[in-house]
Amino acid sequence: MYIKNTKSTLFISKSKNISDIPTLFIHGFTGSSKSWSGIRSKLSTSTIAVDIPGHGKSKFNDLSDTYFFKDFSNELFISLLHLKIKKINLCGYSLGGRLAITFAAKYPEMISSLLLESTSLGIEDRTDREIRYKKDLGMADSIKENLFEFSKNWSINKLFEHQSIRNEIEYNNQKVIRESHNKEQLANSLKTFSVGNMPFLRNQFQKFSFPIIIVNGKDDIKYIKEGRDMLKLNTHAKQYIINKASHNVHLENEESFIEILSDFNN
Q: What's the pTM value of the predicted model, to 2 decimals?
């Protein structure tokens, strides 16, 4: 279903019956709500998946309008109220994890539990943030120039190098999703949700009082460290490091991820 808000129109895929506290999934950069289809099909609990603005069927209503992380939080909140949902288990992957943390910081009363897969609290140093933002602006330009070439280069990122072996079906599905985006919308999404364009969320994360599950792939050394740093900040957090997985754990080791989700939903 589509929910038109002030700055974006969000596409939300939900279970037929939302009878308990649903799990809401937020995908990563270049993904969509369809990126969670394999996981959601194997769960018995109620689920929701949203397309981040600029991805899939969600869009920025005006590409010239400035959009912030807080705008996504506010419009997702309004969308959930529209669906009469007051409490969620929130699961975010990579970019989706950063959006999940931002949402949880703004609306902690809506969070039953928070699962963060291969994500971070942002970049602490202001100069480093500016450097990253400029880099992402360059990537956004390359998306607008040639989406298919960008998609090809993105898919060979070292973080994803074992995906085609570990889960060929979902790897190919991700390729289709990646190439199906509107290039102007996707470029604007990268510009908007760059890690260089978000606040550093350490102070907010420290205050979370609900259960937090941090999931990292054993091959993803950088984000294991990010996860350990988060673990030190909050006594409600627990970290899982999953074998036979790198950055995208739910794609590369679906079985282990579903086991974690089963605990997460209880």
A: 0.96
